[in-house]
Specification:
Largest sheet: 3 strands, antiparallel
Radius of gyration: 19 Å
Number of domains: 2
Number of helices: 3
Oligomer: single chain
CATH topology of the largest domain: HU Protein, Chain A
Order of helices and strands: HHEEEEEH
Structural class: alpha+beta
Distance between the termini: 20 Å
Helix content: 40-55%
Number of strands: 5
Length: 91
């Protein structure tokens, strides 16, 4: 599902216009991104939890030369599915 398909589905389910649904979907996405950027965990009960995690600096290998190289510490977003979402996938 693309973002535009999501906006259309929200408009259909809520009876809102696509323009209003677009504003709502964008506001939700921006709010989640802002919370994650400030280090907060975003928990949507029944759906799941978004969290920023840190990968420690470690040594890897250059795939072309085989030489060891240091891979810098980095951050990534982690998602854990909630109970309701997990159960809906079993059906």
């Amino acid at each position: 599902m693309t973002k535009s398909e999501l906006i259309s589905a929200v408009a259909e389910k809520t009876g809102m216009t696509k323009k209003d649904s677009d504003a709502v979907v964008n506001a939700v996405i921006e709010t989640i991104m802002s919370a994650l950027a400030s280090g907060e965990k975003v928990q949507i009960v029944g759906f799941g939890t978004f969290e920023v995690k840190t990968r420690a600096e470690h040594v890897g290998r250059n795939p072309y030369t085989g030489e060891p190289m240091t891979i810098a510490e980095s951050k990534h977003v982690s998602f854990s599915a909630g109970k309701t979402l997990k159960e809906s996938l079993k059906r």
